[in-house]
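Re: folding output
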Amino acid sequence: MNKLFSVADKQMKRLFTVSEKRGLPPGSMVYTGRQKEVPLRISVIDYDGATISDQQDVTTEACVAFKDSETVSWINVTGLNDTEAIGRIGTQFDIHPLVLEDILHTTQRPKLEELGDYLFLVVRMLYTEAETRELHSEQISFILTARCLISFQETAGDVFDLIRDRLRKNHGRIRKMGPDYLLYALMDAIVDNYFLIMEQTGEQIESIEQNILDNPSAALMNELYAQKRELLYIRKAVWPLREAIGGLERGESKLLKPKTHAYLRDLYDHTIQVIDTVETFRDMLSGVQDLYLSSLGHKTNQVMQVLTIIATIFIPITFVAGIYGMNFDHMPELHWKYSYPVAWLLMICMTAGMLYYFRRKKWF
């Protein structure tokens, strides 16, 4: 859990990092991400209803051939530190310099922009590592044209493998639709992964809640705060995504066919569900925090109750011991041969009587 906290905390800090572009003119192509060692690689899946071509390590010069092809092309660019190559792709597809700047500035807020011949969409892809369950975030940028969908991501590995399998095996309607439906399918994969993260988060919250009921401790509070920071980061990624998908669904761009709008409405509903889940989990965490404080207070009250009962029992015993410990000469009980056992019997009877009284009152 501490790893989760550190990763989410680092991701949050990235949102507020001072940009490396400070002082540069608008449209300056500067990669601001941290994955500077990832080489640029381009893969292209070109398809129609009958054929498909899956190419790896395509050159930037070869990408222009897919611009006006009759088939649908998904051009996926991995690694953004080669700004010159990104610039060449932008020139080939007439992408505005400000859009290229936003692609390279990897802490963008999810957004949608309609720019005449193409749509520009920025989203955040969230995923967790299978072994460590660390939360990671990556900016994915999409350029949608009449025949192409270009995606830009910082590192290799994403949540699109199922979409690639559907394309290769021709499952469903994806090969029969245009690039706008492909954009929907990729967005749907990102949002579906949000649900997976929410499921894992829900299990962790339930585990923290049960552990707090069993044995509240400071370590559990650290886990609680880690979950709160993680949910805050997820919320920052999902809330603006709702606006972007809503803009797609309500938009009148010719690049989005009427058939696709129905799927975009469904995707918008899924985004609302994720947001509702995030808000529910935030309320649950606040309730778990109150539960921890209540459990801690109850535990302290139990300890104080036991100590108070012990102190109360010893008050009359101390009184008896104090009276007969004064050693006055004219105390008749001091010289009686049964004084010692009688004193013990008296103190035992007082203790038993007080315990019986406390039990009747249900004080313990």
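--- second protein (sequence, then structure) ---
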Amino acid sequence: MTPTTEHRPQMSVEEFEELERHAPETVRLEFINGKVQVKAVTDGNHDQIVAWLQRLCMQHRPELWLYAERGMKVEAYRRGRARPDGVLAPFGFAKGHGDWSEAEGVLMTVEVTSHDADTHQRDRVEKPGGYAAAGIPVYLLVDREDRTVTVFSDPEDGRYRLQVNKPFGAVIDLPDPVNITLDTEPLEDLAT
């Protein structure tokens, strides 16, 4: 029986990093589950959601910063590469890291869904596993299509053991080590 190629990466991490370095600025590439993925260019509402979260994080936890689109080494053995919409870490975290940071010290990653065909598989299925495998304590998914906010936490064995989902407009707690309560009412106007 011939082994299937679905579990073999399309290329090595080193080959991906070389490809990503030479990609045009209009394209954002990620390497998740051994596959090269093109992440949609963001729109204004997407960017406003990230800015809203940056402001809230700064108000509640001034010693931290929500880094936008910071390159992260994710998945088991750091064999994946992702550019989360936000990475919450101590201010100064990215200093000296180059293009891709280790997950150590990261408290939370954030993804805001885009209006593209791959968002379900990428943000709702693959990213939680990659971030959990990297040991990132909290993953916040702002889902504009479903108009929900989902908090994934307690990573163990490559998956998050806890998942809390609330509709836009609800209050949701970002657990330890983040310890911020979000009133998601402003998201109702930014879902489109």
